[in-house]
UniProtKB/TrEMBL annotation:
Species of provenance: Malus baccata (Siberian crab apple)
One of the GO BP terms on file: root development
InterPro entries documented for this protein: BPS1_pln
Name recorded for this polypeptide: DUF241 domain-containing protein
Pfam families: BPS1 (PF03087)
Lineage top rank: taxon: Eukaryota
């Protein structure tokens, strides 16, 4: 299975774009949003950035994408942009623009759906912990379900990102020998595509936090974590662990400490609940960001289709 590095590939390094001297104000506003996103991207890649804040940084980046696509929508509504693109509607790079809009829609929508499934699993587990009873096996069942969903989502993310990589490679062939305004628009759209892919890359890294393969034993996740020596007290969890890792460890600590006591260790259970609440909040923020972005991507595609069908 493919894995994702926390560092972006060379393809994802988004540059500060240089526009013509007399760029339209809409183009300049789009450039400003792109440069803001570049700063957010730097925060995501920074080795000094604590893992525990990655979800928050991703939410901010998705918010930045929302502002970027608002500006792109405004740019595409300009008569000058529509006329210029209509003159080139039969060219291959224009078709690739349309193909790209479909790819980003698919990746955004599918990622949002995967996260929604994960959120439901997290909330089911929270609910089970709140109404726990001595000897209640439903906790083990919900933990197993949560792990299965995480593993399934990781496989899906690999597929989503492979389609983005193929799309990004096509953008390298965008033309530059066109009139100034259209050249600026094309550069904006290309840079927007690259930084969108970059942010999805970091989102995929977060969602693909490694899941250890379960073994056929009652406490499969726990036994593996014990074998790896990663079970620690809640007080020892530190900034190098993201929200998903903290939940894994808190749940495992709870099961280990309660496996012989009928889940009576309230301190460990409360710790798991706190970690799940933090993860739930992070997931909901990402889901909301993806939902808003998905709607804007639809509008961008509709705008492109309308101007190219004239």
């Amino acid at each position: 299975m493919a894995s994702f590095s926390t560092k972006p590939s060379k393809l994802y390094n988004v540059r500060s774009i240089s526009m013509p001297v007399r760029s339209h104000p809409s183009t300049l506003r789009t450039e400003e949003e792109l440069n803001k996103l570049k700063a957010l991207e730097a925060a995501l890649t920074s080795s000094s950035s604590p893992a525990s804040s990655k979800a928050d940084s991703i939410c901010k980046a998705l918010g930045g994408l929302k502002e970027l696509y608002f500006c792109i929508e405004e740019l595409l509504q300009l008569p000058l942009t529509q006329q210029a693109l209509a003159l080139h509607q039969k060219e291959k790079w224009v078709e690739e623009l349309l193909d790209g809009s479909v790819t980003y829609l698919d990746v955004c929508g599918n990622t949002r759906d995967s996260i929604l499934t994960m959120k439901e699993s997290v909330r089911d587990l929270q609910s089970t912990l709140r109404r726990r009873k001595v000897g209640d096996s439903s906790i083990e069942d919900n933990v197993s379900s949560y792990v299965r969903i995480r593993k399934k989502m990781k496989k899906e993310i690999v597929q989503f990102m492979a389609s983005l990589k193929q799309m990004d490679q096509k953008y390298e062939a965008f033309p530059l020998d066109i009139d100034n305004h259209l050249a600026a628009v094309v550069r904006v759209l290309r840079e927007a595509s690259l930084i969108t892919s970059s942010i999805f890359h970091f989102l995929s890294s977060f969602l693909s936090t490694p899941i250890l393969k379960p073994r056929p034993s009652r406490w499969s996740l726990v036994s593996i974590l014990l074998h790896k020596g990663v079970l620690v007290s809640d007080n020892n969890q530190h900034k190098s662990m993201n929200e998903l890792e903290n939940v894994d460890i808190a749940i495992s600590n709870m099961l280990v400490n309660n496996s012989g006591e009928g889940f009576e260790d309230d301190q460990k259970t409360q710790s798991a609940q706190r970690r799940l609440e933090v993860l739930d909040s992070s997931i909901e923020g990402i889901e909301n960001g993806l939902e808003c972005l998905f709607r804007l991507l639809i509008r961008t595609r509709v705008s492109l289709l309308n101007m190219l069908s004239c």
